Amino acid sequence: MASIDLNSDLGENSAERVVSDDAAMLEIVTSANVSCGFHAGSAEGIRDTLTAAVANRVAIGAHPAYRDRENFGRTPLEPESRALQAEVEYQLGALMALAAAVGGRVAYVKPHGALYNTIARDERQARAVVAAVRAVDPALVMLGLAGGVVLDIAAGAGLRTAAEAFADRGYLPDGTLVPRTQPGAVLHDPSVVARRMVRLIESGVVRAVDGTDVRIDAQSICVHGDSPGAVTMAAETKRMLQGAGIEIAPFVVV
Length: 254
Description:
Blueprint: E1 3-10, H1 22-25, E2 31-35, H2 43-55, E3 59-63, H3 81-101, E4 106-109, H4 113-119, H5 123-136, E5 141-145, H6 149-156, E6 161-166, H7 190-203, E7 205-207, E8 213-215, E9 220-222, H8 230-243, E10 247-248
Helix pairs in contact: 3-5, 5-6, 7-8
């Protein structure tokens, strides 16, 4: 039986900005990419999300970002390598401590937003992030964009890796994501989103914005927690995948 992980970006709520229904998502997904606080979230809210993830036996991943709360971590930045490595190390350490406090553990790392997209193609920043993960805990798995350079660098550094596909994001013909500033970047129809993920798992391809098919080898599928209708999209994606005989299971040991 084919198997796929279903993940979501969570722990991003704070008193001044609520963007997702973490409790509902954690009853659907098998992995949670939990904010480390640099782009969104509060210490208390992140701890609550981690507690719920442990209760639902959901795998926990660290979701480090650029220090960019004003723009939700979605502005490309060019930090020096030493600074970037230290900031990622700091974020991983904080989340690992909170997870341990509620009886959980961080099993993998998935960078957020602009940092995620940058290290899919920028070797310098990718090496800084990989160095941070190795320094903190070389047992952590690196989750990144399928085909991204960071996965090659991580594997070369001895880290385990996993590739990710996006249910609710548009793809360019080269396998990268459509920038959020362009039409077709974010998908909203639950049936469309779910059907394209079933097709991905069954045939290994996803339709790009120009109508061509992009081949993607992924071990995890992301539905963004802050997307409009995210819970409905995640639930429909899970329902249709299971209806097609595809098992939904974490890509790491919980």
